[in-house]
Write a structure and sequence with these properties.
By secondary structure, the chain is an alpha/beta fold. It is about 50% helix and about 15% strand. The protein contains twelve helices and eight strands. It has an eight-stranded mixed beta sheet with strand order 3-2-4-1-5-6-7-8, sandwiched between helices. A hairpin with a 7-residue loop joins strand 7 and strand 8. Helix 5 packs across helix 12 and helix 6 packs parallel to helix 7. The protein is elongated and about 75 Å long. Bound molecules: guanosine-5'-diphosphate (GDP). Guanosine-5'-diphosphate (GDP) binds next to helix 6. The site of guanosine-5'-diphosphate has 18 residues, from helix 6. Its main location: cytoplasm.
């Protein structure tokens, strides 16, 4: 991810490197190239506009004109502004003060939700927590089984409806799971909900019903960073239909252009909290805007 963007930005900065003073024409040319680089990386247009205008404004100011090395100062500004559009500070999970912390996952099918649920459970275990996974995705016959397989991989119990009891009601499953977690002293409950291939009303309503029933401490929207501009559209639809507190970007190891990662915080106003970047259960961590910006400008 970001390979093309990184290359393009590196070339842009090379063009001004070594100049003792930057003219307005230099700044305009640099801003134009940054704009093209971001658009090519699939960053949403309003985000590009705002970003480039901030860069231009700062590049024309004293911090650049009085810098010993103006080009380096521009790189520093771009870095700072990248950190800002990626959300600034790392946003950490909020745990419930009493009783189990409930984390609900929502997103489209194929986003990597089931995999993410297990990765998050493993990560929580490493933080000293005792998580439990809940299979409230009763839409796809295989979804419960898939979560059970992933749960086994990280050795975390999975609460699922009894087989043979029909399709079951995901709201009830989620409610029962929280009671079970209390009985068994699990301090974090991760509720996996149904995903569809596309956004539809029934999916949104079901997720909203689960949310209303279990009152989660954190609702996380899980989205595949490889789907580019569609990630932003889906994020907006889930924000309107279900609402959430934070975003999890998956498949950051892919070779997509990275625009989703750079647009989603600004468009939704919600922080990216976690990043999933591979098929292994340990390919997962908190999302750090500064490290991501650093990688782009590496
Ligand atoms: P769900 O339908 O949202 O539950 O998606 P799954 O968890 O089943 O994931 C869909 C596919 O994406 C699976 O083949 C996963 O192995 C794969 N996958 C999930 N997360 C990642 C990731 O971070 N990187 C890569 N490369 N593949 C992932």
């Amino acid at each position: 991810m970001f390979a093309t963007l990184s290359d393009r930005l590196a070339t842009t900065f090379k063009n001004i490197r070594g100049k003792g003073r930057l003219t307005d024409a230099d700044i305009d040319a640099t801003a134009r190239e940054i704009r093209i680089a971001l658009l090519e990386a699939d960053v949403a247009l309003p985000v590009v506009r705002e970003f480039v205008s901030r860069i231009k404004e700062r590049a024309r100011g004293e911090e650049v004109s009085q810098a010993l090395n103006p080009a380096q100062q521009i790189v520093k500004i771009v870095n700072e502004e990248l950190v800002t559009i990626l959300g600034g500070e790392t946003r950490r999970l909020r745990y419930a003060k009493n009783g189990p912390t409930v984390i609900m996952l929502a997103g489209l099918q194929g986003a990597g939700k089931t995999t993410l649920a297990a990765k998050l459970a493993l990560w929580l275990k490493e933080q000293g927590k005792a998580p439990m996974l809940v299979a409230a995705d009763l839409q796809r016959p295989n979804a419960v089984n898939q979560l059970q397989v992933n749960g086994e991989r990280v050795n975390v119990p999975v609460f699922a409806p009894e087989p043979g009891n029909g399709v079951g009601n995901p709201v009830e499953v989620a409610r029962d799971a929280i009671e079970e977690a209390k009985r068994k002293l699990h301090d974090v409950v991760i509720v996996d909900t149904a995903g569809r291939l596309g956004i539809d009303e029934e999916l949104m309503k079901q997720a909203a019903d689960i949310k209303a029933a279990v009152n989660p401490d954190e609702v996380l929207f899980v989205v595949d960073a490889m789907i580019g501009q569609d990630a932003v559209k889906t994020a907006q639809a889930f924000l309107d239909g279900v609402g959430y507190d934070g975003v999890v970007l998956t498949k950051l190891d892919g070779d997509a252009r990275g625009g989703a990662a750079l647009s989603i915080v600004q468009i939704t106003g919600k922080p990216v909290m976690f990043a999933s970047n591979g098929e292994k259960m340990t390919d997962f961590d908190l999302f750090h805007p500064d490290r991501m910006a650093g990688r782009i400008l590496d």
